[in-house]
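Why should sequence recovery work at all? Because a backbone constrains its sequence more than one might expect. Tight turns favour small or flexible residues, buried strands favour hydrophobic ones, and helices have their own preferences. The token representation captures these environments compactly. In the example below, the structure is given first.
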């Protein structure tokens, strides 16, 4: 069997954690996957997987081998796609992770245009609302809203979104509208925290070009963008929501902007992909398309 084909099957087994699921994904018998892995293990002189009746997990050597395989296969894929100039020639699966609200309000409503232009690209969009392991999960790129951690990923800035301080009509009926930062002591903040840590709720705002934070009472912390929005709509507190996600609810009267002179710092939106990979043509055209719609959204 071709060495690279065997490596592709190894990567699929690692991602699915299953020989059967990898075989199903490729439309092949399970024995062909097992034989490919056994051939690799024989050539490398080591076991790549721990096998049991319930699970298939990577060995320590398998953990080392996986990212190297993925990088090599990605480089070969990029090399083979760089001369694709006709949109119909750009093909393959593109896996993208992004926040669920960004997917619902920005990407999905505009996606028909991309699919029409590149009919042979198959998009797989996940909205995990947690920091995915791009290498292990086989993700080609991620979209992140907010400040970025230092990492080995290449970041491509897309746009910035203004954040609005919002409450629901039911919240106003119960607690009123704060007019100053000092009055926030008598209100509640919905805390958005990906890690659900114990630092306490902080209302962020700009003051003469500087970012400041005000501690606030809070009864709820969430780590997902959908839950954050729903909590605000349900009257559970003040939320600081990107305008792109809040706009339609404001027009319907379901959310009310408050404290407009104390908005948070605009939130950068970035696309990230692994630095050690040459991007494939399908990733390049997707990045260009995404940049075009975010600049006009």
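From this structural description, the recovered sequence reads:
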């Amino acid at each position: 069997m071709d060495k690279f084909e065997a490596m592709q099957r190894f990567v699929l087994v690692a991602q699915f954690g299953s020989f059967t699921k990898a075989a199903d994904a490729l439309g092949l018998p399970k024995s062909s996957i097992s034989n490919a892995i056994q051939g690799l293990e024989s050539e490398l002189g080591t076991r790549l997987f721990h096998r049991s009746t319930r699970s298939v997990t990577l060995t320590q050597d398998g953990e080392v081998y996986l990212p190297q395989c993925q990088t090599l296969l990605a480089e070969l894929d990029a090399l083979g796609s760089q001369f694709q100039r006709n949109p119909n020639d750009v093909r393959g699966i593109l896996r993208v992770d992004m926040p669920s609200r960004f997917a619902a309000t920005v990407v999905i409503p505009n996606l028909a245009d991309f699919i029409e232009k590149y009919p042979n690209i198959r998009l797989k969009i996940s909205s995990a609302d947690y920091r995915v392991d791009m290498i292990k999960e086989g993700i080609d790129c991620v979209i992140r809203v907010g400040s970025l951690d230092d990492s080995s990923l290449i970041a491509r800035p897309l746009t910035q979104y203004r954040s609005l301080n919002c409450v629901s009509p039911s919240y106003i009926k119960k607690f009123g509208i704060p007019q100053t930062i000092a009055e926030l002591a008598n209100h509640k903040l919905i805390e958005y925290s990906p890690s659900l840590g114990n630092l306490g709720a902080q209302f962020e705002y700009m003051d003469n070009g500087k970012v400041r934070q005000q501690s606030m009472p809070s009864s709820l912390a969430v780590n997902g963008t959908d839950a954050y929005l729903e909590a605000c709509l349900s009257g559970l507190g003040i939320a600081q929501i990107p305008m792109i996600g809040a706009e339609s609810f404001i027009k319907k009267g379901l959310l009310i902007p408050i404290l407009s002179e104390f908005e948070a710092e605009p939130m950068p939106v970035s696309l990230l992909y692994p630095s050690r990979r040459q991007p494939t043509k399908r990733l390049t055209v997707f990045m260009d398309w995404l940049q075009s719609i975010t600049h006009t959204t």
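A few observations help interpret the result. The two ends are 48 Å apart (CA to CA).
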